[in-house]
Structures are given as C-alpha cells and as structure tokens.
Design a protein that fits this description.
Layout lengths: L3 H41 L9 H32 L2 H19 L10 H29 L7 H9 L1 H19 L2 H6 L4 H4 L4 H11 L4 H12 L7 H8 L1 H32 L4 H29 L1 H24 L7 H27 L6 H17 L1 H9 L6 H25 L9 H8 L1
C-alpha cells in the first residue's frame, strides 16, 4: 500500500510541471501588462496624450493604465465562473491567447491626426489586457497550488507569483535594449512598438499548456463527484458573494498595499525620477530591473517560509514592512538625482525585499480561504478588487506630488496609510480563520476553507 511519502514523491513531477507552466504563463502575461505601464510613463504622455501641462499629460496617460485595472475584476468574475465549472486549464489558455492578441495590436495603434482615435483604440485594447490578466491569475495560481504535494502548497504556489518580477525584468530589458539601439526620435516615433509585438510568443506557450498539461486533481475530483451525483450548480460567483463577501473584501483590503506599493515603484518612480529629478531613463529602468531580479529568488523563499511558519504570519510581515518602508522610501527617492543615485537604489531594493513576503504568499493564502467549488471565483475576485485600487496609485502619486518634487513624502504617507488598512484587514482574516493555517493537513484545509 503506498505511503504518504510515496504519494508526495509521485506528485512532485506533476507539481513541478504545473508550477513551471504557471511561472512561464504569468511571466509573459505580466510582461504584456507591465510594458503598457512603462510605455505610458515614457511614451504615451508625449505622443498620444501630449499637452502643454506635464501633469495633465501624465494623468491622461496613466488613466489608460488604470482602465486595465478596472477591467481585471470583470475578467476575474468571468474566469471564475468558467474556471469553477469547466476547469482551471482551459480558462488559463484562453486568457493567454487574449493577452497575446490584444498586446500585439497595441503595437499597431496608428499615429493619426484624429486626436480621439488612438486613445480610443488604446483604451479598448487595455480593457482586453485587463480582462485577460484578471482571468489568468486565478488559473495560474490554482494550477500550481492544486497540483502541489501536501504541505508544499506555499512553495509551489509561489511560482505563479514569480510572473510579477520576471514580467517586469523582461519588460525593462526589452525597453533598455530598444532605448540603447535607437535614438530618442526613433524610439518615440516607432521603436516603442517592438516590445508589444514580441508578445506573440505567448501563442505557442498557450498551445503547449493546452496540449500537454493535465487538469488539477482537485478539480478532477470535484467533476467526478458531480458526475456521480449530478446536481444543478449555482453560479460560483453568486455563491461567493452570498456566502463569503466578507472574506473577499478583507482579502482585497489586505492585498491592496502590495499592489499600490508595486505600481508606485515600477511606474510612478520612473515617471517621477525622469520628469522631476533629471535622472536618465535608462538609469531608472536599470535600477528597477536589478531590484526585480533580486525579487525573483525572494518570492519562492517567502512561499517556502509560509509552509513552515504559516501564510498569515509571512504575509503580515510583508504588510508591516511596506507600512514602515513607505515614507523612508519616498523621502530617499525625492532626494535622488543623476549625481546622487544611491538613495533611489536603496529605496527600490528595500521595497522589493518587503514586498516579496506578501507576493510570495498571497496566491496560496487566497486560494486556501475558499472551498474548491468556488475557489477560482473567490480568490480571483479578492485579488482583482485590490488591483483596481492599485491601478489608480500612479495617478494618485501625480496628484499628491502636483508638479513639486519636494512633495514626494506625501506618496510615502499614502503608502503607510494603505499598509495600516492592510494590517487591519489581515487581522480580520486571522480572527475569522483562527485555526492553524490551512496548509497543515487536508482535514484542516477543508475545515478552515469552509
């Protein structure tokens, strides 16, 4: 009779394949989603949205970034419905295809004398990006966590979160190469489009996942039970909203600080440093790139630590760290210049360290808050609601600074406030699910998730 250790060993190759597929797919999805934000900070404000006011141009450009975040919960709701009814894998594949097509088309948006045409096309395609990434996150996280061996969900689930730093690294590398090869005139005229065309490589990835990866064991078991005792299944999202609305809202509130922190760093700091501090674009992107490279090993480390010490503890350390680092981070950014770069470097390196504790655990933590039959819907909705809040953070940053670099500390205060709200929401989660963390045993998982 096979032992538990035999089962774990047998499941490791499957878990490794699923985690690798989740990491690759999310990396490419986030690459596509992030390069739009980078282009909005470096290109769109001087091309499609150019005005006499730098503040207005930046606000208009970042507004289209925010549109993608507004669409993400809609994508999460649609994907959750089909992901809980049809399966995790087909939803993930559909999301990858949608993202590849939408992103490549952004690279074809024409420069036109019709001032409304290009922004309209950009907004439409950005909505498609938001729908795709909203659908993709839940599928990738559940693909990794539901294939993971017992007691290792945190570690294997963290690979789906690796797409965040890897996506930023890929996007920044491509933009750094483009800016190094082409002069500023060529870059603004047409070369900025190349990173968007590269996204077509996602289509072969979607085919491989569709062809060679199996559905998760938990969904297969759920489908088998329904086949043996068929019942009329209600809408998963309606079940989540009826039975678990508080869990969704507290999860969103706890996660919002991570999204806000991340986007004020990778997008807001780029716009601030290049516009107000006179730091070269390639220098800023280089620091962001290096910081995200550091984040890559820290994310699975956080997932591993969550298997040992609990999701909520590691997640809470990251939340508290961002609360405490917000003001010092932006004070240092505000005192940086082309001749004094070390404060900027220290600010962003410190940021990725504290963020990693939350990033590496959030996918598994959210998945374990919901039972399998509504897990895709519940986890996706909580995560994507927080994304709406985070999507507006670059615009909030522009308004808080208001054209005066000495106001950078206001952004730090904004981050500290979001961190305080995040801790309060995490406390609410801990009180509701006061039993030991759900990763410990299958019995614990079913009890706490319900």
């Amino acid at each position: 009779m096979p032992t538990d250790s035999d089962t774990r060993r047998a499941g490791k190759p499957r878990a490794a394949r699923a985690s690798f597929a989740a990491a690759i797919s999310t990396s490419l999805e986030w690459y596509d989603f992030f390069i739009y934000a980078t282009a909005a900070a470096l290109v769109f404000n001087t091309t499609f949205f150019a005005t006499d006011s730098q503040v207005v141009a930046a606000l208009n450009s970042f507004a289209t970034v925010a549109v993608g975040f507004i669409a993400r919960p809609v994508g999460g709701v649609l994907a959750g419905h089909f992901g809980d009814k049809v399966g995790r894998k087909p939803v993930l594949v559909a999301a990858i295809v949608m993202m590849a097509v939408a992103t490549s088309l952004i690279g074809l948006v024409p420069n036109t004398q019709l001032v409304w045409l290009a922004p309209t096309i950009l907004v439409t395609l950005r909505i498609c990006q938001g729908l795709a990434v909203g659908a993709q996150w839940g599928g990738a996280v559940l693909l990794a966590t539901e294939n993971a061996p017992a007691g290792r969900r945190g570690f294997y689930g963290s690979f789906a979160q690796l797409g965040v730093p890897i996506g930023v690294v890929l996007g920044n590398v491509v933009f750094l190469v483009i800016t190094a090869v082409f002069d500023s005139e060529s870059f603004l005229a047409w070369a900025w489009r190349i990173p968007f065309w590269i996204s077509l490589v996602m289509l072969p990835v979607a085919f491989v996942i569709h062809r060679y990866l199996e559905e998760t064991p938990e969904f297969q078991e759920l489908s088998k039970k329904l086949a043996e005792a068929p019942v009329a299944r209600k809408s998963p999202i309606l079940q989540v909203l009826r039975k678990n609305p508080g869990t969704v809202l507290t999860a969103a509130g706890a996660n919002a600080i991570g999204v806000i922190f991340f986007y004020t760093m990778i997008t807001g700091s780029v716009q601030f440093a290049t516009t107000y501090l006179g730091i070269e674009r390639s220098t800023v992107l280089g620091f962001i790139l290096a910081a995200c490279v550091l984040m890559i090993p820290l994310v699975p480390l956080a997932g591993y630590l969550s298997d040992l010490y609990g999701r909520k503890l590691i997640f809470g350390i990251g939340t508290a760290g961002m609360l405490l680092w917000g003001i010092p981070m932006w004070l240092m950014i505000g005192h940086s210049s082309q001749g004094t770069l070390w404060p900027f470097a220290l600010a962003v390196f410190g940021a990725v360290i504290v963020m990693s504790f939350q990033t590496g655990t959030q996918g598994t933590l959210f998945a374990e808050l919901f039972p399998p039959e509504i897990r895709f819907s519940g986890a996706s909705l909580g995560y994507q609601i927080s994304a709406i809040i985070g999507g507006f953070s670059p615009m909030v940053m522009v308004l808080l600074i208001n054209g005066d670099a000495s106001n950078a500390w206001r952004v730090g205060a904004f981050l500290a406030g979001a961190g305080a709200i995040g801790l309060l929401c995490l406390v609410a989660i801990v009180r509701k699910y006061s039993s030991p963390d759900v990763h410990q045993t299958p019995a614990r998982r079913s009890t706490v998730a319900a």
